[in-house]
Design goal:
The protein is α+β, with helices and mostly antiparallel strands and 291 residues long. It is built from seven helices and 13 strands. The protein has two domains: 188 residues, 3-Layer(aba) Sandwich (Trna Endonuclease, Chain: A, domain 1); 88 residues, no CATH class. Strands 1, 2, 3, 4, 5, 6, 9, 10 and 11 form a nine-stranded mixed sheet that branches. Strands 7-8 form a two-stranded antiparallel sheet. The protein has a two-stranded antiparallel sheet with strand order 12-13. Helix 4 crosses helix 6 and helix 6 runs antiparallel to helix 7. The radius of gyration is 23 Å and the shape is globular. The two termini are 29 Å apart.
């Protein structure tokens, strides 16, 4: 895979910048000012917005290859200037390890830049795809992808000539709108109003567990909590779902979409907050297989 820029890539970059500027300006409800290619000393933002709150946002559209160091340097510069940065990758450009689409996929290539931005944004990377039909260009709505370890652990890192990639499973997370929210951690970052895949699955697992707690005893037709046995009669054989049986049911329900690593990550985070009816040691043992 060649990482050198080309005329086509430059054209794609310009087209994406203009379309992102157009769509966010038209659909974000919190913008006071907006412009293309705003300069901040030696730093130039692809797209710039000032929100009604007064927060300044620089949008970095990345189409060509970029190193992790470059991402850190640019993000540090913006942070020092009091500007929040929103990174968006072209899902069909050279910044990605393999083409990215808004769908779930197994064992695909992730570039070091994508891997870093996944941590940067707390479990997601933002993309847009530029599509061209004859002379008409359209941009997909922004979408987020969450990475998790591939089931093929031996292919964790993929080398190609002088380049290397990570092999990851990918989960698609829809973004509700073009609206932007700002947050400050190590860097000042801007993001969309979306949840990462672990948060989404955690909520689904909680609902699943709540439903399992309402299961009725087959003998007395009475509902019992997850960790209680039927005490109505001494010979009642009602056994609540628990432990490995419950995890197997969760994996069966959500495994095809999310994969076991995200399931175990979600269970691990849920068990830290409060008891969920599954042994912490069992969850920790499963979690350590991937993390």
């Amino acid at each position: 895979m060649s990482f050198k820029g080309s005329q086509a890539e430059s054209f794609s970059h310009k087209a994406i910048k203009r379309l992102v500027f157009k769509y966010i300006t038209s659909n974000c409800h919190d913008i006071r000012e907006s412009s293309l290619e705003k300069h901040f000393g030696t730093r130039r933002a692809d797209v710039y917005f000032k929100l009604l709150s007064g927060q300044k946002v620089a949008v970095e559209i990345q189409n060509s290859y970029i190193t992790v160091k470059e991402i850190i340097d640019r993000s540090s510069d913006y942070t020092k200037k009091g500007i929040f940065v929103l990174w968006i990758l072209n899902g069909k450009g050279n910044a990605v390890g393999s083409l990215k689409d808004p769908r779930d996929e197994k064992s695909i290539k992730i570039s070091p830049a994508e891997q870093f931005l996944h941590t940067f944004y707390g479990g997601r990377v933002y993309y847009v795809n530029l599509n061209q039909y004859f002379h008409k260009k359209t941009l997909t709505p922004p979408f987020a992808l969450h990475f998790s370890p591939s089931n093929n652990i031996s292919a964790n890192i993929f080398k190609e000539k002088f380049d290397y990639y990570f092999i990851r499973n990918v989960n698609y997370v829809p973004i509700p709108s073009w609206d932007i929210v700002c947050a400050e951690y190590k860097f000042k970052i801007a993001r969309f109003y979306d949840k990462n895949a672990v948060s989404i699955l955690s909520n689904k697992i909680l609902k699943f567990l709540q439903k399992s707690r309402k299961r009725k005893c087959e003998n007395c037709s009475k509902k019992f909590k997850l960790l209680r046995r039927c005490s109505l009669t001494s010979d009642c054989e009602f056994k609540p779902y628990r432990g490995k049986k419950l995890i197997k049911m969760i994996s069966s329900k959500f495994g095809n979409t999310y994969g076991n690593s995200i399931i175990y990550d979600s269970l691990h985070k849920l068990s830290i907050k409060k008891p969920i009816g599954i042994s912490k040691k069992l969850i920790e043992d499963l979690y350590q297989k991937f993390f």
